[in-house]
Amino acid sequence: MGTGRVALVLLLATALLQALLAAPAEGLVRIPLKKRPADGNGGLHDARRRGFLGGSSNAAAAALNKAEAEEEGDIVALKNYLNAQYYGEIGIGTPQQRFTVIFDTGSSNLWVPSSKCYLSMACYFHERYKAGQSNSYKKNGKPASIRYGTGAISGYFSLDSVKIGDVVVSNQDFIEATREPGITFMVAKFDGILGLGFKEISVGAAVPVWYNMVKQGLVDDPVFSFWFNRHAGEGQGGEIVFGGIDPNHYKGNHTYVPVTRKGYWQFDMGDVLIGGKSTGFCASGCAAIADSGTSLLTGPTAIITQINEKIGAAGVVSQECKAVVSQYGQRIIDQLLAETHPSKICSSVGLCTFDGAHGVSSAGIRSVVDDEAGESNGLFNEAMCNACEMAVVWIQNQLAQNQTQDLVLQYINQLCERLPSPMGESSVDCNRVASMPDIAFTIGGRKFTLKPEQYILKEGEGPAAQCISGFTAMDIPPPRGPLWILGDIFMGAYHTVFDYGNLKVGFAEAA
Protein backbone atom coordinates (compact mmCIF):
# COMPACT_ATOMS: atom_id res chain seq x y z
CA MET A 1 0.00 0.00 0.00
CA GLY A 2 2.82 2.34 0.59
CA THR A 3 2.95 4.73 3.51
CA GLY A 4 2.96 8.34 2.32
CA ARG A 5 2.45 7.49 -1.33
CA VAL A 6 0.23 9.93 -3.16
CA ALA A 7 -2.59 8.67 -5.38
CA LEU A 8 -1.38 5.14 -5.71
CA VAL A 9 -3.53 2.74 -7.64
CA LEU A 10 -7.27 2.53 -7.64
CA LEU A 11 -7.99 -0.28 -5.17
CA LEU A 12 -10.16 -2.64 -7.23
CA ALA A 13 -12.74 -2.70 -4.42
CA THR A 14 -14.75 -5.35 -6.16
CA ALA A 15 -12.62 -8.29 -5.14
CA LEU A 16 -11.80 -8.60 -1.47
CA LEU A 17 -10.63 -11.84 0.07
CA GLN A 18 -10.55 -14.19 3.06
CA ALA A 19 -7.66 -16.29 4.41
CA LEU A 20 -6.76 -19.02 6.84
CA LEU A 21 -3.43 -19.97 8.38
CA ALA A 22 -1.51 -23.21 7.99
CA ALA A 23 1.11 -24.81 10.21
CA PRO A 24 4.84 -24.26 9.55
CA ALA A 25 7.23 -26.98 8.44
CA GLU A 26 10.98 -27.02 9.02
CA GLY A 27 11.18 -23.39 10.08
CA LEU A 28 8.79 -22.14 7.40
CA VAL A 29 5.70 -20.16 8.27
CA ARG A 30 3.08 -20.65 5.57
CA ILE A 31 0.23 -18.18 5.20
CA PRO A 32 -2.34 -19.35 2.63
CA LEU A 33 -3.81 -16.26 0.96
CA LYS A 34 -7.41 -16.68 -0.08
CA LYS A 35 -9.53 -14.97 -2.69
CA ARG A 36 -13.18 -14.04 -2.41
CA PRO A 37 -15.54 -13.05 -5.24
CA ALA A 38 -16.17 -9.33 -5.47
CA ASP A 39 -19.37 -7.84 -4.21
CA GLY A 40 -21.75 -7.53 -7.13
CA ASN A 41 -22.10 -3.75 -6.86
CA GLY A 42 -18.50 -2.93 -6.11
CA GLY A 43 -17.50 -1.60 -9.54
CA LEU A 44 -13.88 -1.17 -10.58
CA HIS A 45 -12.88 1.73 -8.37
CA ASP A 46 -10.88 2.11 -5.16
CA ALA A 47 -9.17 -1.24 -4.64
CA ARG A 48 -5.66 -2.63 -4.50
CA ARG A 49 -4.77 -6.15 -3.65
CA ARG A 50 -3.46 -9.53 -4.73
CA GLY A 51 -3.80 -12.90 -6.51
CA PHE A 52 -1.83 -16.11 -7.34
CA LEU A 53 -1.52 -19.55 -8.88
CA GLY A 54 -1.87 -23.07 -7.60
CA GLY A 55 0.45 -26.01 -8.26
CA SER A 56 0.56 -28.85 -10.74
CA SER A 57 -2.53 -30.05 -12.56
CA ASN A 58 -1.82 -33.80 -12.68
CA ALA A 59 -3.61 -36.22 -10.39
CA ALA A 60 -0.57 -37.09 -8.29
CA ALA A 61 0.20 -33.44 -7.58
CA ALA A 62 -3.45 -32.77 -6.79
CA ALA A 63 -3.48 -35.62 -4.30
CA LEU A 64 -0.25 -34.34 -2.73
CA ASN A 65 -1.63 -30.84 -2.47
CA LYS A 66 -4.75 -32.19 -0.80
CA ALA A 67 -2.71 -34.21 1.68
CA GLU A 68 -0.57 -31.18 2.48
CA ALA A 69 -3.67 -29.06 2.94
CA GLU A 70 -5.14 -31.58 5.37
CA GLU A 71 -1.86 -31.69 7.28
CA GLU A 72 -1.31 -27.92 7.40
CA GLY A 73 -4.81 -26.75 8.20
CA ASP A 74 -8.12 -25.71 6.75
CA ILE A 75 -7.22 -24.40 3.31
CA VAL A 76 -10.31 -23.43 1.38
CA ALA A 77 -10.27 -22.89 -2.40
CA LEU A 78 -12.19 -19.74 -3.27
CA LYS A 79 -13.17 -18.40 -6.65
CA ASN A 80 -10.92 -15.95 -8.42
CA TYR A 81 -12.74 -12.75 -9.30
CA LEU A 82 -10.72 -10.09 -11.12
CA ASN A 83 -7.50 -11.40 -9.56
CA ALA A 84 -7.55 -8.68 -6.94
CA GLN A 85 -7.24 -8.46 -3.16
CA TYR A 86 -5.61 -11.30 -1.28
CA TYR A 87 -5.32 -11.44 2.48
CA GLY A 88 -4.46 -13.82 5.29
CA GLU A 89 -5.34 -14.31 8.93
CA ILE A 90 -3.35 -13.43 12.04
CA GLY A 91 -4.06 -13.48 15.74
CA ILE A 92 -3.37 -10.74 18.31
CA GLY A 93 -3.38 -11.11 22.08
CA THR A 94 -3.93 -13.86 24.64
CA PRO A 95 -6.36 -15.46 24.11
CA GLN A 96 -6.04 -14.88 20.40
CA GLN A 97 -8.24 -12.32 18.64
CA ARG A 98 -8.38 -13.07 14.92
CA PHE A 99 -8.02 -10.50 12.14
CA THR A 100 -7.65 -10.64 8.38
CA VAL A 101 -4.84 -8.46 7.05
CA ILE A 102 -3.17 -7.47 3.83
CA PHE A 103 0.48 -8.56 3.82
CA ASP A 104 1.81 -5.37 2.29
CA THR A 105 5.43 -4.97 1.15
CA GLY A 106 4.73 -1.30 0.44
CA SER A 107 4.33 -0.27 4.10
CA SER A 108 5.89 -1.28 7.42
CA ASN A 109 3.32 -1.00 10.22
CA LEU A 110 0.74 -3.41 11.56
CA TRP A 111 -2.66 -1.95 12.37
CA VAL A 112 -6.13 -3.27 13.10
CA PRO A 113 -9.36 -1.52 14.14
CA SER A 114 -9.69 -0.69 17.83
CA SER A 115 -12.68 -1.34 20.06
CA LYS A 116 -12.37 2.36 20.86
CA CYS A 117 -13.10 3.34 17.26
CA TYR A 118 -16.52 4.95 17.63
CA LEU A 119 -16.82 7.59 14.92
CA SER A 120 -15.76 5.70 11.77
CA MET A 121 -18.29 3.44 10.09
CA ALA A 122 -15.49 1.26 8.72
CA CYS A 123 -14.68 -0.01 12.21
CA TYR A 124 -18.22 -1.35 12.68
CA PHE A 125 -17.87 -3.52 9.58
CA HIS A 126 -14.72 -5.29 10.84
CA GLU A 127 -13.23 -7.12 13.78
CA ARG A 128 -11.97 -4.78 16.50
CA TYR A 129 -9.14 -5.35 18.96
CA LYS A 130 -10.20 -5.37 22.61
CA ALA A 131 -7.19 -4.63 24.79
CA GLY A 132 -9.05 -5.47 28.00
CA GLN A 133 -9.59 -9.05 26.85
CA SER A 134 -5.88 -9.81 26.30
CA ASN A 135 -3.65 -11.04 29.12
CA SER A 136 -0.52 -10.13 27.13
CA TYR A 137 -1.56 -6.54 26.28
CA LYS A 138 0.79 -3.72 27.32
CA LYS A 139 -0.15 -0.07 27.10
CA ASN A 140 1.80 2.35 24.90
CA GLY A 141 -0.61 5.11 23.90
CA LYS A 142 1.65 7.07 21.53
CA PRO A 143 -0.50 8.61 18.76
CA ALA A 144 0.00 7.41 15.18
CA SER A 145 -1.42 8.05 11.73
CA ILE A 146 -0.75 6.53 8.32
CA ARG A 147 -1.73 7.86 4.92
CA TYR A 148 -1.85 5.33 2.10
CA GLY A 149 -2.41 6.03 -1.57
CA THR A 150 -6.10 5.24 -1.23
CA GLY A 151 -6.99 5.97 2.37
CA ALA A 152 -5.78 6.91 5.84
CA ILE A 153 -6.03 5.67 9.41
CA SER A 154 -5.14 7.14 12.79
CA GLY A 155 -5.05 5.89 16.36
CA TYR A 156 -2.42 4.95 18.92
CA PHE A 157 0.23 2.31 19.53
CA SER A 158 -0.28 -0.72 21.73
CA LEU A 159 1.90 -3.76 22.51
CA ASP A 160 0.82 -7.39 22.36
CA SER A 161 1.71 -10.81 20.97
CA VAL A 162 1.00 -11.48 17.29
CA LYS A 163 0.44 -14.98 15.93
CA ILE A 164 1.31 -15.64 12.28
CA GLY A 165 0.77 -19.21 11.20
CA ASP A 166 1.95 -21.24 14.18
CA VAL A 167 4.60 -18.82 15.44
CA VAL A 168 4.00 -16.12 17.99
CA VAL A 169 5.83 -12.80 17.87
CA SER A 170 6.21 -11.39 21.39
CA ASN A 171 5.93 -7.74 22.42
CA GLN A 172 4.95 -6.44 19.00
CA ASP A 173 4.10 -2.76 18.54
CA PHE A 174 0.97 -2.22 16.46
CA ILE A 175 -1.56 0.53 15.89
CA GLU A 176 -5.09 0.42 17.24
CA ALA A 177 -6.96 2.39 14.59
CA THR A 178 -9.59 4.67 16.10
CA ARG A 179 -10.35 6.51 12.86
CA GLU A 180 -10.76 5.08 9.35
CA PRO A 181 -12.40 7.91 7.40
CA GLY A 182 -13.82 7.51 3.91
CA ILE A 183 -15.17 4.53 2.03
CA THR A 184 -11.92 2.71 1.19
CA PHE A 185 -11.68 0.65 4.36
CA MET A 186 -15.41 0.48 4.91
CA VAL A 187 -15.96 -1.64 1.79
CA ALA A 188 -12.85 -3.75 2.37
CA LYS A 189 -13.36 -7.28 3.65
CA PHE A 190 -9.92 -7.26 5.31
CA ASP A 191 -9.63 -5.78 8.78
CA GLY A 192 -6.15 -4.28 8.74
CA ILE A 193 -2.72 -4.23 7.16
CA LEU A 194 0.54 -5.95 8.11
CA GLY A 195 3.44 -4.07 6.55
CA LEU A 196 6.48 -5.98 5.29
CA GLY A 197 8.55 -3.00 4.18
CA PHE A 198 11.70 -1.74 5.89
CA LYS A 199 11.79 0.06 9.23
CA GLU A 200 12.93 3.23 7.44
CA ILE A 201 9.29 3.93 6.49
CA SER A 202 7.73 2.65 9.69
CA VAL A 203 5.49 5.24 11.33
CA GLY A 204 6.50 6.02 14.89
CA ALA A 205 9.78 4.12 14.43
CA ALA A 206 7.90 0.93 15.37
CA VAL A 207 9.85 -2.27 14.76
CA PRO A 208 8.05 -4.14 11.92
CA VAL A 209 6.60 -7.59 12.58
CA TRP A 210 9.03 -9.22 10.14
CA TYR A 211 12.06 -7.74 11.94
CA ASN A 212 10.84 -9.27 15.21
CA MET A 213 10.20 -12.63 13.55
CA VAL A 214 13.86 -12.69 12.54
CA LYS A 215 15.20 -11.24 15.82
CA GLN A 216 13.22 -13.71 17.94
CA GLY A 217 14.47 -16.68 15.89
CA LEU A 218 11.03 -17.65 14.61
CA VAL A 219 12.24 -18.35 11.05
CA ASP A 220 15.26 -20.31 9.82
CA ASP A 221 16.20 -17.89 7.06
CA PRO A 222 15.59 -14.13 6.80
CA VAL A 223 13.58 -14.58 3.60
CA PHE A 224 9.89 -14.47 2.70
CA SER A 225 8.22 -15.19 -0.62
CA PHE A 226 4.87 -14.59 -2.31
CA TRP A 227 2.92 -16.89 -4.62
CA PHE A 228 -0.26 -15.50 -6.17
CA ASN A 229 -2.85 -17.58 -7.99
CA ARG A 230 -4.12 -15.81 -11.10
CA HIS A 231 -6.20 -18.78 -12.31
CA ALA A 232 -9.90 -18.63 -11.55
CA GLY A 233 -11.23 -21.63 -9.66
CA GLU A 234 -7.90 -23.43 -9.30
CA GLY A 235 -6.95 -24.16 -5.73
CA GLN A 236 -6.25 -21.75 -2.92
CA GLY A 237 -5.81 -18.05 -3.48
CA GLY A 238 -2.12 -17.77 -2.76
CA GLU A 239 0.58 -18.22 -0.18
CA ILE A 240 3.22 -16.24 1.60
CA VAL A 241 6.06 -18.31 3.07
CA PHE A 242 8.01 -16.77 5.93
CA GLY A 243 11.51 -18.22 6.33
CA GLY A 244 12.00 -19.77 2.91
CA ILE A 245 10.83 -20.54 -0.61
CA ASP A 246 8.50 -23.30 -1.80
CA PRO A 247 9.99 -24.81 -5.02
CA ASN A 248 6.52 -25.90 -6.14
CA HIS A 249 5.58 -22.27 -6.65
CA TYR A 250 7.97 -21.35 -9.48
CA LYS A 251 9.74 -22.60 -12.62
CA GLY A 252 13.41 -22.22 -13.45
CA ASN A 253 15.66 -19.95 -11.43
CA HIS A 254 15.09 -16.62 -9.76
CA THR A 255 16.76 -13.51 -11.10
CA TYR A 256 17.94 -11.43 -8.15
CA VAL A 257 18.62 -7.70 -8.05
CA PRO A 258 19.95 -5.73 -5.06
CA VAL A 259 17.78 -3.41 -3.02
CA THR A 260 18.98 0.05 -3.98
CA ARG A 261 17.06 2.05 -1.39
CA LYS A 262 15.66 0.71 1.85
CA GLY A 263 12.15 1.73 2.76
CA TYR A 264 10.17 0.08 0.02
CA TRP A 265 11.69 -2.98 -1.67
CA GLN A 266 13.24 -0.79 -4.37
CA PHE A 267 15.58 -1.91 -7.15
CA ASP A 268 16.85 -0.78 -10.55
CA MET A 269 14.82 -1.61 -13.65
CA GLY A 270 15.86 -1.27 -17.27
CA ASP A 271 14.06 -0.81 -20.57
CA VAL A 272 10.32 -1.32 -21.03
CA LEU A 273 9.34 -3.03 -24.29
CA ILE A 274 6.00 -3.06 -26.10
CA GLY A 275 5.63 -5.95 -28.50
CA GLY A 276 9.37 -6.55 -28.32
CA LYS A 277 10.24 -2.94 -29.23
CA SER A 278 12.00 -0.58 -26.87
CA THR A 279 10.08 2.42 -25.61
CA GLY A 280 13.37 4.06 -24.71
CA PHE A 281 11.89 5.50 -21.55
CA CYS A 282 13.91 3.43 -19.09
CA ALA A 283 16.81 2.57 -21.40
CA SER A 284 19.14 4.46 -19.07
CA GLY A 285 17.47 2.99 -15.99
CA CYS A 286 14.44 3.52 -13.78
CA ALA A 287 13.61 2.67 -10.19
CA ALA A 288 10.93 0.12 -9.31
CA ILE A 289 9.43 -1.45 -6.22
CA ALA A 290 7.74 -4.83 -5.72
CA ASP A 291 4.50 -4.07 -3.86
CA SER A 292 2.10 -6.80 -2.77
CA GLY A 293 -0.31 -4.09 -1.60
CA THR A 294 -1.00 -2.75 -5.09
CA SER A 295 -3.37 -4.57 -7.44
CA LEU A 296 -2.20 -3.06 -10.71
CA LEU A 297 1.09 -1.96 -12.23
CA THR A 298 1.88 1.74 -12.18
CA GLY A 299 4.39 3.84 -14.02
CA PRO A 300 5.00 7.34 -15.40
CA THR A 301 2.10 8.77 -17.40
CA ALA A 302 4.23 9.20 -20.54
CA ILE A 303 5.01 5.50 -20.87
CA ILE A 304 1.73 4.15 -19.48
CA THR A 305 -0.07 6.19 -22.13
CA GLN A 306 2.06 4.58 -24.85
CA ILE A 307 1.25 1.14 -23.50
CA ASN A 308 -2.46 1.89 -23.31
CA GLU A 309 -2.40 3.27 -26.86
CA LYS A 310 -0.85 0.05 -28.16
CA ILE A 311 -3.44 -2.12 -26.43
CA GLY A 312 -6.32 0.16 -27.42
CA ALA A 313 -7.19 1.28 -23.90
CA ALA A 314 -9.48 4.30 -23.90
CA GLY A 315 -8.96 6.93 -21.22
CA VAL A 316 -9.80 10.62 -21.00
CA VAL A 317 -9.08 12.96 -23.92
CA SER A 318 -6.62 15.57 -22.69
CA GLN A 319 -7.23 18.94 -24.30
CA GLU A 320 -4.02 20.28 -22.80
CA CYS A 321 -2.07 17.50 -24.48
CA LYS A 322 -3.63 18.17 -27.86
CA ALA A 323 -3.06 21.91 -27.43
CA VAL A 324 0.65 21.33 -26.79
CA VAL A 325 0.97 19.15 -29.89
CA SER A 326 -0.91 21.65 -32.02
CA GLN A 327 0.96 24.74 -30.84
CA TYR A 328 4.38 23.42 -29.92
CA GLY A 329 4.77 20.05 -31.65
CA GLN A 330 6.85 21.31 -34.54
CA ARG A 331 9.08 23.39 -32.24
CA ILE A 332 9.71 20.35 -30.08
CA ILE A 333 10.66 18.32 -33.15
CA ASP A 334 12.99 21.07 -34.38
CA GLN A 335 14.76 21.30 -31.03
CA LEU A 336 15.16 17.54 -30.73
CA LEU A 337 16.65 17.43 -34.24
CA ALA A 338 18.96 20.26 -33.20
CA GLU A 339 20.05 18.03 -30.30
CA THR A 340 18.72 20.29 -27.58
CA HIS A 341 18.71 18.38 -24.30
CA PRO A 342 15.17 16.96 -23.93
CA SER A 343 14.83 18.17 -20.33
CA LYS A 344 15.33 21.80 -21.45
CA ILE A 345 12.85 21.90 -24.32
CA CYS A 346 9.66 22.62 -22.38
CA SER A 347 11.31 25.47 -20.53
CA SER A 348 12.63 26.91 -23.81
CA VAL A 349 9.11 27.05 -25.27
CA GLY A 350 7.83 28.71 -22.10
CA LEU A 351 5.70 25.92 -20.65
CA CYS A 352 7.98 24.90 -17.79
CA THR A 353 10.69 26.45 -15.66
CA PHE A 354 13.92 24.46 -15.83
CA ASP A 355 15.60 23.93 -12.45
CA GLY A 356 18.78 22.36 -13.80
CA ALA A 357 17.63 18.78 -13.46
CA HIS A 358 13.96 18.52 -14.26
CA GLY A 359 11.16 20.57 -15.74
CA VAL A 360 9.09 22.34 -13.12
CA SER A 361 5.66 23.71 -13.77
CA SER A 362 5.52 27.46 -13.80
CA ALA A 363 2.57 27.01 -11.45
CA GLY A 364 5.12 26.24 -8.77
CA ILE A 365 6.65 29.74 -9.14
CA ARG A 366 4.58 32.28 -7.25
CA SER A 367 4.09 35.56 -9.04
CA VAL A 368 1.80 38.59 -9.08
CA VAL A 369 0.26 37.29 -12.30
CA ASP A 370 -0.49 33.94 -10.69
CA ASP A 371 -1.98 35.60 -7.62
CA GLU A 372 -4.22 37.79 -9.73
CA ALA A 373 -5.20 35.05 -12.14
CA GLY A 374 -6.09 32.69 -9.34
CA GLU A 375 -5.54 29.02 -8.74
CA SER A 376 -7.10 27.90 -12.02
CA ASN A 377 -4.34 29.56 -14.01
CA GLY A 378 -1.71 27.74 -11.96
CA LEU A 379 -3.37 24.39 -12.51
CA PHE A 380 -3.61 25.09 -16.23
CA ASN A 381 0.10 25.93 -16.38
CA GLU A 382 0.95 22.75 -14.53
CA ALA A 383 -1.14 20.65 -16.91
CA MET A 384 0.51 22.28 -19.94
CA CYS A 385 3.98 21.69 -18.48
CA ASN A 386 3.21 18.01 -17.79
CA ALA A 387 1.71 17.58 -21.26
CA CYS A 388 4.80 19.14 -22.84
CA GLU A 389 7.18 16.86 -20.96
CA MET A 390 5.21 13.81 -22.08
CA ALA A 391 5.15 15.04 -25.67
CA VAL A 392 8.94 15.40 -25.66
CA VAL A 393 9.34 11.77 -24.54
CA TRP A 394 6.92 10.51 -27.16
CA ILE A 395 8.35 12.58 -30.02
CA GLN A 396 11.92 11.63 -29.14
CA ASN A 397 10.97 7.96 -29.26
CA GLN A 398 9.24 8.31 -32.63
CA LEU A 399 12.12 10.25 -34.19
CA ALA A 400 14.48 7.49 -33.05
CA GLN A 401 12.39 5.13 -35.17
CA ASN A 402 12.91 7.36 -38.24
CA GLN A 403 9.24 8.33 -38.54
CA THR A 404 8.35 11.32 -40.71
CA GLN A 405 7.45 14.49 -38.87
CA ASP A 406 3.83 14.39 -40.03
CA LEU A 407 3.42 10.82 -38.81
CA VAL A 408 5.07 11.72 -35.52
CA LEU A 409 2.56 14.50 -34.83
CA GLN A 410 -0.37 12.26 -35.84
CA TYR A 411 0.85 9.57 -33.47
CA ILE A 412 1.27 12.00 -30.57
CA ASN A 413 -2.31 13.19 -31.05
CA GLN A 414 -3.43 9.57 -30.81
CA LEU A 415 -1.50 9.20 -27.56
CA CYS A 416 -3.24 12.27 -26.18
CA GLU A 417 -6.54 10.47 -26.64
CA ARG A 418 -5.25 7.54 -24.58
CA LEU A 419 -4.34 9.48 -21.47
CA PRO A 420 -5.81 7.69 -18.42
CA SER A 421 -9.00 8.88 -16.80
CA PRO A 422 -8.82 10.84 -13.53
CA MET A 423 -9.29 7.64 -11.49
CA GLY A 424 -6.47 6.01 -13.45
CA GLU A 425 -8.36 3.17 -15.09
CA SER A 426 -8.60 2.51 -18.81
CA SER A 427 -10.95 0.04 -20.49
CA VAL A 428 -10.25 -2.21 -23.47
CA ASP A 429 -12.30 -4.27 -25.90
CA CYS A 430 -12.45 -7.80 -24.50
CA ASN A 431 -12.57 -9.20 -28.04
CA ARG A 432 -9.14 -7.73 -28.77
CA VAL A 433 -7.22 -9.21 -25.84
CA ALA A 434 -5.74 -12.06 -27.89
CA SER A 435 -4.25 -9.63 -30.42
CA MET A 436 -2.68 -7.26 -27.89
CA PRO A 437 1.13 -7.04 -27.65
CA ASP A 438 3.29 -8.48 -24.88
CA ILE A 439 4.72 -5.93 -22.44
CA ALA A 440 8.19 -6.68 -21.04
CA PHE A 441 10.26 -5.21 -18.22
CA THR A 442 14.02 -5.59 -18.02
CA ILE A 443 15.22 -6.56 -14.55
CA GLY A 444 18.73 -7.80 -13.82
CA GLY A 445 19.42 -8.05 -17.54
CA ARG A 446 16.46 -10.40 -18.07
CA LYS A 447 13.19 -9.58 -19.81
CA PHE A 448 10.10 -10.34 -17.75
CA THR A 449 7.18 -10.53 -20.14
CA LEU A 450 3.51 -10.01 -19.36
CA LYS A 451 1.08 -11.46 -21.87
CA PRO A 452 -2.30 -9.79 -22.51
CA GLU A 453 -4.21 -12.34 -20.46
CA GLN A 454 -1.88 -11.52 -17.55
CA TYR A 455 -2.17 -7.73 -17.64
CA ILE A 456 -5.88 -7.43 -18.49
CA LEU A 457 -8.44 -7.75 -15.70
CA LYS A 458 -11.77 -9.16 -16.85
CA GLU A 459 -15.03 -8.69 -14.97
CA GLY A 460 -18.09 -10.68 -15.98
CA GLU A 461 -18.76 -12.93 -18.96
CA GLY A 462 -20.33 -12.67 -22.39
CA PRO A 463 -21.66 -9.36 -23.76
CA ALA A 464 -21.67 -7.84 -20.28
CA ALA A 465 -17.95 -8.49 -19.72
CA GLN A 466 -15.67 -5.56 -18.97
CA CYS A 467 -11.92 -5.59 -19.48
CA ILE A 468 -9.60 -3.19 -17.67
CA SER A 469 -5.99 -2.38 -18.46
CA GLY A 470 -3.66 -3.48 -15.68
CA PHE A 471 -1.50 -0.39 -16.29
CA THR A 472 -2.24 2.87 -14.53
CA ALA A 473 -0.29 6.11 -14.37
CA MET A 474 1.40 7.74 -11.43
CA ASP A 475 4.15 10.34 -11.72
CA ILE A 476 6.73 10.49 -8.95
CA PRO A 477 9.29 13.25 -9.57
CA PRO A 478 13.07 13.00 -9.08
CA PRO A 479 14.98 12.24 -6.98
CA ARG A 480 12.63 9.46 -5.86
CA GLY A 481 11.19 8.91 -9.32
CA PRO A 482 10.45 8.07 -11.99
CA LEU A 483 9.26 5.07 -9.99
CA TRP A 484 7.45 1.98 -11.18
CA ILE A 485 5.26 -0.04 -8.83
CA LEU A 486 5.11 -3.70 -9.77
CA GLY A 487 1.96 -4.85 -8.01
CA ASP A 488 -0.10 -8.02 -8.16
CA ILE A 489 -0.33 -7.89 -11.97
CA PHE A 490 3.42 -8.55 -12.06
CA MET A 491 3.82 -10.60 -8.87
CA GLY A 492 1.03 -12.93 -10.02
CA ALA A 493 3.04 -13.79 -13.12
CA TYR A 494 6.38 -13.95 -11.30
CA HIS A 495 6.96 -15.64 -7.96
CA THR A 496 8.68 -13.03 -5.80
CA VAL A 497 11.31 -13.55 -3.12
CA PHE A 498 12.15 -10.84 -0.58
CA ASP A 499 15.62 -11.66 0.75
CA TYR A 500 16.03 -9.55 3.86
CA GLY A 501 19.35 -11.16 4.82
CA ASN A 502 21.08 -10.28 1.57
CA LEU A 503 19.00 -7.20 0.70
CA LYS A 504 17.81 -8.40 -2.69
CA VAL A 505 14.60 -9.22 -4.54
CA GLY A 506 14.18 -12.23 -6.81
CA PHE A 507 11.70 -13.08 -9.57
CA ALA A 508 10.95 -16.39 -11.30
CA GLU A 509 8.07 -17.58 -13.48
CA ALA A 510 5.17 -18.61 -11.26
CA ALA A 511 4.07 -22.25 -11.39
From TrEMBL:
- Pfam families from the UniProt entry: Asp, SapB_1, SapB_2
Family annotation (InterPro entries): Aspartic_peptidase_A1 (IPR001461), Aspartic_peptidase_AS (IPR001969), PEPTIDASE_A1 (IPR033121), Peptidase_aspartic_dom_sf (IPR021109), Phytepsin (IPR033869), SapB_1 (IPR007856), SapB_2 (IPR008138), Saposin-like (IPR011001)
Which cysteine residues pair off into disulfide bonds?
Answer: C117-C123
Query: Which GO BP terms apply?
Result: proteolysis
The entry's active site is: D104, D291
Q: What residue range is the signal peptide?
A: 1-22
| Family matches, as Gene3D superfamilies | Acid Proteases, Saposin-like
Give the domain of life.
Eukaryota
Q: Where in the cell is it found?
A: Vacuole
Question: What keyword terms does UniProt attach to this protein?
Answer: Aspartyl protease, Disulfide bond, Glycoprotein, Hydrolase, Protease, Signal, Vacuole, Zymogen
- Give the molecular function GO annotations: aspartic-type endopeptidase activity
Instruction: List GO terms (cellular component aspect).
Output: vacuole
Q: The Saposin B-type domain covers which part of the protein?
A: 316-356, 381-422
Q: Which family does it belong to?
A: Belongs to the peptidase A1 family.
PANTHER family (alphabetical) = BETA-SITE APP-CLEAVING ENZYME, ISOFORM A-RELATED, OS01G0663400 PROTEIN
**The name this protein goes by in its record:** Aspartic proteinase oryzasin-1
Where is the organism placed in the taxonomic lineage, from the top? Eukaryota, Viridiplantae, Streptophyta, Embryophyta, Tracheophyta
